[in-house]
Amino acid sequence: MARCIFHIDLDAFFASVEQVLNPKLKGKPVIVGGDPERRGVVASASYEARPFGIHAGMPSSKARRLCPQAIFIRAHFSLYKDTSAKFMKILGDFSPHIEPLGFDEAYLDVTGCIEPYGSPQKLALAIKERIHKELKITASVGIATCKVVAKIASDLCKPDGLLEIAPGKEQASLNPLPVAKLPGVGKKTEQALKDMGITTIGELANLPLDTIKRHFGATGTVLHSYAQGIDDREVEAPGEAKSISQELTFTRDTLDHDFLEANLHNLCQEVCQELRSQKKSAKCVAIKLRYADFKTITRQVTLQEASDVTQAVFTTAQQLLRKTLVKQEKPIRLIGIRISSLVGEEKQLPMFDSGTEKPGHLDKAIDKIRSKYGPTAIKTGNGISSEGS
Ligand code: DCP
Ligand code: CA
């Protein structure tokens, strides 16, 4: 079932809060930021100031030249923090799956929350109305099947907007947009892409993966997926990761079982090392496979006992992979592992209670070497180096 993700962003946040506190500022160009006399910069400009070309990050002196009638205000961070906390609390009333991004934006996974409202748009309207009623400021909401597309959508419909990019329409909606609209494409990447003759997201999506990897490495692989409207990241609160995942896109699609298993082992080693560094164990193991035609499947099992042992996680993932490969013999372009239902170390029960050398000992020794000399310094038998990124 397709996910339903909202990206919710308050409009002209700092400037809007100032307008709420001082109604005389309503409807006027308001600029919150540094002093125009003292080389300050614009932090937030009300939408009345935007037609003058004013945007965040611009020197305040320039903003004053562009719009002499603008009202300049110094930032009041404690007020913004207050409003931000209220904003996040409102969102939390609509879905428990919330991922705040900074002060004034958040992702919300509302997949299971739509029914009482009838449609994603109606739910989004309810959220917008509640924000407006309680905070007196407007928000823009992007709706899509994944985070990156939802974020682009909210940006496209600002201010006070609501835009749904329907399932299946991701690629067509993104194609004509300039690459700078893609999260992760900053000024430098935008210029580098321009030098390659790429100005739209559609052109970026159509580049061969090899080419983009050569220029931008692993970041290129991510951007390439985003440009195609593909983003499997979950909505989860930072610092409270409910899962750890790693994936690998191959340079060439493959059906070589040994190659797939070896890469799966490497990925297991990476996620388990991260798991152990967080002093946690995982109860769920899932694999992800993306086929050459971009169809993506995940298969998950729950372990009998939570574990942080690479070999235990790998053995489970390997069984999942083998079962899936028996059923489906299509070339694979991406393999991924995800461990979830994380529990603290104190809850961990022994997976192996016989034998002299417990597998965990080997893991600890490997972790030490890998953290000192890098992830490629040592691998156990199953791991071989791959052509992926
Ligand atoms: N901010 C800042 N300096 C920047 C960018 C932003 O101090 N260079 C602060 C002020 C903004 C807040 O973060 O109000 C949120 O940033 P946004 O990029 O979401 O900008 P706005 O909310 O002001 O405007 P928009 O309506 O475009 O979201
Ligand atoms: Ca904002």
What does this structure look like?
The chain has 389 residues and is of the alpha+beta class. The chain has twelve helices and twelve strands. The strands form three sheets. The chain has a five-stranded mixed sheet with strand order 5-6-1-7-8. Strands 9-12-10-11 form a four-stranded antiparallel sheet. It has a three-stranded mixed sheet with strand order 3-2-4, with helices on one face. The radius of gyration is 24 Å and the shape is globular. The structure holds 2'-deoxycytidine-5'-triphosphate and calcium ion.
- Average residue-wise pLDDT: 90
The total of helices stands at 12
Strand order of the largest sheet: 5-6-1-7-8
Shape: globular
- Largest sheet composition: 5 strands, mixed
User: What share of residues are in beta strands?
Assistant: 15-25%
> Uncertain runs with pLDDT below 50, 5 residues or more?
346-357, 384-389
Identify the bound ligands. Answer: 2'-deoxycytidine-5'-triphosphate, calcium ion
Structural class designation: alpha+beta
Please give the radius of gyration in angstroms.
24 Å
Ends: how far apart?
28 Å
Q: How much helical structure, as a percent, in the residues?
A: 25-40%
Sequence of secondary-structure elements? EHEEHEHEEHEHEHHHHEHEEHEH
Question: Which assembly state applies to the chains in this document?
Answer: single chain
> Total strand count, please?
12
